[in-house]
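Database export, one record per block. Field names are fixed; values are copied verbatim from the stored entry.
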Amino acid sequence: MKTDKLTKWSNMQLPNPFKKVGYGIAIICLGLVVGQQIVGIFPEWARFLLSTMLLLGLLMVSLSKEKIEDEFIISLRSRSYQFAFIFGLGYTLILLPLVNYIADLIQGSAYSPVKNDYFDVLLLMILVQLVFFNKLKRCHC
């Protein structure tokens, strides 16, 4: 019984038109975030909301079915999620602490723990997944 629920959740995808909706949300939110960085008029809660909406828009793109969804596309999607997860872990556990350490050495201060929040890692992982999924589709690897 539990495996049925797990299978249902693992196969969850949105219909193909949600891909356009997700891109629209992501582009609008990205434009507002960039505009906010330039103008600086949004309060902190609005920046948080825009960042969250940007991630949700990209997630909609990532979870949307292709026009032709077959076993090959499912395999490519799985590989791209796997790569994004590994890339995100490598970034968080290796690259980010190394960059922070080098920056602290250059500044002459003592080493401080990793300076990062969840948004950077999640954005990196979802962008890596989308890029590699599209690249795998094109090269038919």
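Remark 1: Residues 1-65 form one domain.
Remark 2: The longest helix spans residues 71-107.
End of record.
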